[in-house]
Amino acid sequence: MNIYEFNINNQKNLDEKVKESEPQETANVELVEIIDIQTVQSLINDFYELTHIPIGLRDLKDNVLVGAGFQEICSKFHRIHPETCKHCMESIIEQSRDILPGEYKLYRCRNNMWDILTPIMVNNRHIGNIIAGQFIFDDEPLDYELFRSQARKYGFNEDEYIKALEKVPRLSRKTVNTALSFFITFASILSQLSYSNNRLAQSLAEREALLEALSVSEEKYRNIVETANEGISIIDSEEKITFVNKKIEDMFGYSAEELTGRSMWDLISGESKAIIKKKLEKGWENVNESFEIKFIRKDGYPVWTHTNSKSILEKNGKFFGTLNLHTDITKRKEAEEALRNFENARKKEIHHRIKNNLQVISSLLDLQAEIFKGRNNIRDSEVLNAFKVSMDRVLSIALIHEELYKGENIDVLNFSQYIKELANNLLQTYRIETDVSLSLDLEENLFLDMDTAIPLGIIINELVSNSLKYAFPDMDKGEIRIKLQRGEEGESKTKGCKGVDFVLIVSDNGVGIPEYLDIEVLDSLGLQLVTSLVDQLDGELELKRDNGTEFIIRFSST
Q1: Can you give the pLDDT at residue 159?
Q2: Helix (H) or strand (E) holding 446
Q3: Cis peptide before 202 (omega within 30 of 0)
Q4: Is 113 helix (H, G, I), strand (E, B) or coil?
Q5: Rounded distance, CA 546 to CA 514, Å?
């Protein structure tokens, strides 16, 4: 956005220089010949960006030379249908009839849209109009049935027509009145730019005269900026604040005097500083970005804004600074935070209920096992052992959900802490005569997701349970070792393994598994389950039988 200054006090001197040639040169002058389309388009774009009032310059042949914000309801509907297009033309003719310089017409067209028109005159000759529209006053109820009937009458797609209607700006009468003063002043300036003036405008002197001419509307333009619903700030090339509007003062609790000349970084929270600096690694010179920024108010409270930043360049292309539009989104961010907290609480409750349900299942298995204890025709040791193993497996999964419920992070598990609790629970459960010690070598704060944690937890449960049941017959002492560490490149032993992120080693110094026994064909549900779960992890399993039993599992985590 550019900010222009208007002043027409010195225009008379320029008029005198071309007075003699005016009658001849303005007799057939066209509007397109006396305006700098690029400059005026930039001004209109900025005006529309600030006010959302559609505006344009139209010559007497109905050619729109520059404009911004023209509505889909006109371009895609009213201007397409012959009858509604005729209404548009009638509106232009009606608005232009008998209108004098310095006047305007506020007109409701036959398509039920509001328009504003003020004339552009050169040497008392009407050569074009400044138009504003279409819009609807915000104090008027929107008559949907009227527009639906129009859609039906002229064969428009009713739903698309209503969607286009809802995009039409709703403006207050105060905003329209403020804009009217700007339109009349702007029309007066354009009216005084004769054909000769346009030639002189190519020189530096004419450019300076134009800038002076624009200064008369500075105050009115500033009023528009000051009454905007968005905070507006300008930051110079040294990242100092040079301008803020009233909305910024309200948002941040500082006065304009306190903010002017201050570094913008003083107001931004640490977390937002890091994000902004990362997005602006190439600098501010060509920025055209949107940010969600957490500012800190003068009273210490946070205020969140959706900020659009755009570089401002001088006419020679030198970087001047950035224009920033700030929309307060603090309430939205607070609502999002409340929703996240609710979602976390909901997930924690789910983990808690799953853990409770799994414990209920374990209890049911225990009760079922009690029934078999009194039956002589059943091999109690095998049946009861099967129930016991199943209970351990269920409880190993329940323990995962319990850890997730207790932890701050509800999506990943601190697996090192989980192994400690699981191994200790198994030692307490299997009360064997051998004095078995537990040695843990675990990487601290190792977090895994559920898809990895559950199968890995069952694997550890099976291997430690097997050691406790079978590794130490007739031994006074024994040791079970669990080691979990990050893998290193080149550790994979098989071509099928996708990659090694971690290595788990479960070993004991017991009697070991004889060399002639192949674990892949053993009639053991536990070891079959281990090999199946290793495959599920896309990992690899290695067995060493020296000085006891050692299972090495290499796997990756998504």
Answers
A1: 92
A2: none
A3: no
A4: coil
A5: 10
- Among the listed residues 244, 322, 316, the one whose alpha carbon sits nearest the alpha carbon of residue 285: 322
Q: What local confidence, expressed as pLDDT, does residue 22 receive?
A: 45
Write a three-state SS string for 349-393. HHHHHHHHHHHHHHHHHHHHHHHHHCCCCCCHHHHHHHHHHHHHH
Distance CA(119)–CA(105), nearest Å, equals: 9
pLDDT digits (tens, 9 = 90+) for 32-58: 877 888 888 898 888 888 888 888 888
Q: Residue 496: its pLDDT value, please?
A: 43
Residue 173: what are its φ and ψ, rounded to 5°?
-65, -30
DSSP 71: -
**Which residue, among 317, 457, 472, has the nearest Cα to 395 in the 3D structure?**
457
Give the span between the Cα atoms of 36 and 108, in whole angstroms: 30
Label residue 511 left, alpha or beta by phi (over 0 means left) and psi (-120 to 50 means alpha).
Answer: alpha
Nearest-angstrom CA–CA distance, 262 and 3: 21
Specify which residues 71 forms β-bridges with: none
pLDDT of res. 19: 47
Name the stretches of the chain with pLDDT < 50.
Answer: 1-15, 17-25, 194-195, 201, 489-490, 492-499
Amino acid identity of residue 89, one-letter, is: M
- Who's near 149: CB < 8 A, 6+ residues apart? none
Closest CA to 470 of 505, 430, 440: 430
Paired strand residues for 482: 440, 506
- Max Cα–Cα distance, the chain, nearest Å: 129
The sign of the torsion formed by the CA atoms of 23, 27, 29, 35 equals positive
Separation CA 424–CA 434 (nearest Å): 16
| Separation of alpha carbons 392 and 361, rounded Å | 11
Q: Are β-strands 477-486 and 502-508 bridged in parallel, bridged antiparallel, or unpaired?
A: antiparallel
Distance CA 452, CA 459 (A): 11
Provide the Cα torsion 362, 365, 370, 372; round to 10°: -160
pLDDT tens column, 360-393: 566 666 666 666 666 655 555 666 666 666 666 6
